[in-house]
Amino acid sequence: MVSSTPTSKRQQILQGAIQIFLENGYEGTSMDRVAAAAGVSKNTIYSHFQDKKGLFVSLIEQVTGERFQIVFGSVSLSGDPAIVLRQIAEKFFATIMVDQEYIAFLRLIIGESGRFPELAQLFVRALPQKVIHILTRYLDAHPELELESSEATVRIFVGSLMGFILTQEVLHGKDILPLQQEELIRTLIDLIASKKKDSSQLESE
User: How confident is the model over 153-162, as pLDDT tens digits?
Assistant: First the structure.
């Protein structure tokens, strides 16, 4: 019989843990429940994670890291911003809108943010902050857009995408506030790249 490697055992624990956290929330999750779901002992969990908070932090890192890689791993941050930003938005919606585990995880983070703000902050650092920094550097490299603030522009872009996910999926608002993804994407790209478009039109006249 081949014994599990530390990496596979750690992954086994995380897979069991996310089920329990999503079902019971952060405060309602016990290490006993995680151990039962993961099929390991509590001592095994503690040998990989210091405590429940350490386990949840690792879970945040895994969940956000996987989604970041899916969206940005296939998009090259070079070339025309209108094309690059569209690719990011389309990949984001294609990935996240059907990712029920991630939608449930967002609900968990939001639901626990009042009692455990430090956990919500860890999530912000792990994904939104990372995305904002990367895209800000990208837009900084495109002065032809004549943006007053690359970071503010990125926050509008990212915030609009996340706001769409929150209202449509997390808060079950798609039947109340229907909006086509393409309409949102097209409007965002026009807002961000409009000065470049206008300049190109003037040069051709």
Answer: 999 999 999 9
